[in-house]
């Protein structure tokens, strides 16, 4: 660092060497030449540089003047300049720092770090913050050369280019802070943006949004008035309709983030990753309809309420929660939404028309809970809302996807459960935390031993982290030990039930929850799902086609309705509680059960037979890996074959199992 050079071109021109100003250069044109060579990062013929700085002189005189400048630079800054008889350049390998180069590099790095059209990653936002911090003023601000039109024209163009670059960076930062709901941090960048470009109406709107979201409603209204006055004085125009609309929306509210979200009887547990993803999706410009999809009891409603609560300040008119579980017909959907919004319908027009008119000027989030029964007839209304009310966003919970083009899907799975190797740390897992919280609501002194914690972990594993299953299991802790609860769950799905008066009847047992979803399946889909219950663990598509007679459309329908999960390109699985439910349905038809179990066992016996040669040959590793993938199904096949004395199945399987 003994010869460090710092050149600052933003906000003027300063040159420092080892933190001390460089003096003794021949003239301001020597400084200008150094700035030009360092900024452009390329060598130039002497004739070009002479013409740039002395375009009013003869070439001979200009070249003579240039030699004086080069001599001055060589004397003061020899390690940083490279001169030949024909050219001059700045040494880019020397120890130097140039603020404009760093600004440009950081903006370029931020562009590469964008995660979407307007979405910055945290690293990209950090790069932009550092970039705009370098912008201490316009390029070569206050630095002018007389009789050097070429240099002045170049400086003017670069000054405007860098100003545009910083304006774009500030716009991205303001958008980032609005989307990430870090409103106070965004205020400074919005102020800088307006200082650089006071006639940019979008910047005024964003400042209004930031101000109102930081509790400064009056300041937001005043910002509009300042914008209107400025546009009128400078351009003789009124603000755009979108700016005026925002002003009236802010004027119509007393505070941001109003909501009617139902209070929850218990604290929310875990799901921080899911909450972050859902909250970000709700504030993305390209995500106006988000559907949380998953089987009944998986926790969609709680996740939706928590996510909506956390990001309600992102919507001027806040959040409106619309419960739909008791709605019997989609004909009443518009009236139900209007009721939750506390709209008074006149009856002069249809409820749909009045609702759309009311939503047209609102910036808000609608949370439509339990939409699955209304999909066929009600999905059209959601499309109408998205088309007519451009600033309304919709969060839907449903056991089935809506299949709308505007829809973004977020699949909700069970809470994380401890694996066998993590049982000593079981209490750290969200599923176990939920069980403990639920048990302690019934017994405040519930304090399980290490042995009981292992049984609690087993309970969570059996229900695959399903929150409703966990809560129903915990309700038995007053009567049974955790070991007994786990044993009962393994024995029968019907065990998971409760009689608490404040639990909706549809959620008092897993069987009741699954019954509702079962009724949404067609007869063909019900048959396929019954037969799929013979599988254990995951399974591949050729197996379900041969064993369960499942076509691709039926598999797709079962996935859409949260009965089936795709876990890899060609593999599927079923939530264990749903598998037990379907297996009970299959048991009611003994002939169907016998047929499908025979097909199932024959399939996996042949699967093993086909790999005998590979296990003994050069493809051993691949064959063993394939067998390991299907081991749960192979074990179930073997147990069935032994129990039914199916000697042909045993014979097909025996050699490969022995080698495995």
Give the termini separation. Answer: 65 Å
**Estimated structural class:** alpha/beta
Shape: extended
The major pleated sheet works out as: 5 strands, parallel
| CATH topology annotation of the largest domain | Serine Threonine Protein Phosphatase 5, Tetratricopeptide repeat
What would CATH call the architecture of the largest domain?
Alpha Horseshoe
The helix fraction, in percent, is 55-70%
Structure description:
The protein contains 29 helices and 15 strands. With 660 residues, it is of the alpha/beta class. It has five domains: 5-98, Winged helix-like DNA-binding domain superfamily/Winged helix DNA-binding domain (Arc Repressor Mutant, subunit A, Orthogonal Bundle), CATH 1.10.10; 101-252, Serine Threonine Protein Phosphatase 5, Tetratricopeptide repeat (Alpha Horseshoe); 272-411, 3-Layer(aba) Sandwich (Rossmann fold), CATH 3.40.50; 420-513, no CATH class; 601-660, no CATH class. The strands form four sheets. It has a five-stranded parallel beta sheet with strand order 9-10-11-8-12, with helices on both faces. A four-stranded mixed beta sheet has the order 3-2-1-7. It starts with a strand and ends with a helix.
Notable traits:
55% helix, 660 residues, Serine Threonine Protein Phosphatase 5, Tetratricopeptide repeat, 5-stranded parallel β-sheet, Rossmann fold, 5 domains, single chain, alpha/beta
């Amino acid at each position: 660092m003994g010869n460090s050079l710092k050149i600052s071109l933003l906000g003027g021109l300063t040159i420092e060497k080892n933190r001390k100003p460089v003096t003794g250069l021949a003239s301001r044109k020597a400084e200008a030449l150094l700035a030009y060579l360092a900024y452009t990062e390329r060598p130039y013929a002497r004739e070009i540089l002479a013409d740039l700085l002395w375009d009013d002189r003869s070439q001979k005189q200009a070249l003579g003047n240039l030699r004086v400048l080069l001599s001055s630079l060589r004397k003061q800054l020899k390690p940083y300049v490279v001169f030949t008889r024909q050219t001059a350049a700045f040494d880019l390998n020397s120890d130097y720092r140039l603020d404009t180069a760093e600004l440009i590099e950081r903006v370029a790095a931020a562009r590469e770090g964008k995660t979407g059209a307007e979405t910055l990653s945290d690293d990209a936002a950090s790069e932009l913050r550092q970039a705009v911090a370098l912008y201490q003023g316009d390029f070569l601000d206050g630095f002018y050369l007389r009789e050097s039109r070429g240099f002045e024209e170049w400086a003017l163009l670069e000054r405007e280019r860098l100003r545009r670059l910083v304006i774009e960076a500030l716009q991205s930062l303001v958008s980032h802070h609005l989307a990430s709901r870090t409103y106070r941090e965004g205020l400074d960048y919005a102020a800088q943006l307006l200082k650089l470009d006071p006639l940019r109406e979008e910047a005024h709107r964003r400042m209004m949004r930031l101000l109102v979201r930081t509790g400064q409603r009056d300041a937001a209204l005043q910002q509009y008035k300042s914008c209107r006055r400025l546009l009128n004085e400078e351009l003789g125009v009124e603000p755009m309709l979108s700016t005026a609309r925002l002003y009236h929306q802010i004027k119509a509210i007393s505070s941001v983030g109003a909501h009617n979200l139902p209070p929850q009887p218990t604290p929310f547990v875990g799901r921080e990753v899911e909450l972050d993803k859902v909250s970000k999706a709700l504030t993305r410009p390209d995500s106006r309809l988000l559907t949380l999809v998953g089987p009944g009891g998986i926790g969609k409603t709680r996740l939706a309420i928590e996510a909506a609560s956390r990001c309600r300040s992102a919507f001027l008119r806040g959040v409106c929660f619309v419960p739909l579980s008791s709605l019997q017909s989609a004909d009443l959907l518009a009236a139900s939404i209007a009721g939750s919004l506390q709209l008074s319908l006149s009856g002069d027009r249809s409820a749909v028309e009045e609702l759309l008119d009311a939503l047209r000027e609102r910036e808000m989030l609608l949370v439509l809970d339990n939409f699955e029964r209304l999909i066929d007839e009600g999905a059209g209304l959601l499309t109408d809302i998205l088309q007519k009310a451009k600033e309304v966003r919709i969060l839907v919970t449903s056991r089935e996807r809506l299949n709308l083009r505007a829809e973004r899907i977020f699949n909700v799975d069970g809470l994380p459960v401890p694996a066998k190797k993590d049982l000593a740390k079981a209490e750290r897992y969200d599923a176990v935390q939920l069980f403990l919280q639920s048990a302690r609501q019934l017994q405040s002194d519930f304090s399980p031993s290490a042995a009981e914690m292992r049984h609690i972990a087993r309970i969570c594993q059996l229900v695959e982290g399903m929150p409703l299953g966990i809560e129903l299991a915990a309700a038995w802790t007053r009567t049974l030990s955790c070991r007994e609860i786990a044993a009962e769950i393994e024995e029968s799905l019907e065990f998971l039930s409760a009689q608490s008066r404040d639990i909706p009847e549809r959620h008092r047992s897993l069987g009741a929850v699954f019954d509702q979803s079962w009724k949404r399946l067609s007869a063909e889909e019900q048959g396929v799902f019954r037969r799929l219950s013979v599988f254990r663990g995951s399974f591949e598509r050729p197996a379900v086609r041969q064993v369960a007679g499942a076509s691709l459309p039926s598999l797709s329908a079962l996935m859409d309705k949260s009965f089936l999960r795709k876990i890899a390109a060609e593999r599927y699985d079923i939530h264990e509680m749903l598998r037990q439910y379907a297996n009970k349905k299959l048991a009611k038809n003994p002939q169907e059960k016998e047929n499908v179990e025979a097909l199932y066992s024959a399939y996996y016996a042949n699967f093993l037979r086909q790999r005998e040669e590979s296990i003994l040959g050069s493809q051993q590793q691949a064959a063993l890996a394939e067998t390991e993938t299907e081991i749960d199904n192979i074990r179930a096949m073997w147990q069935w074959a032994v129990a039914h004395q199916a000697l042909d199945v045993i014979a097909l399987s025996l050699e490969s199992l022995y080698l495995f």
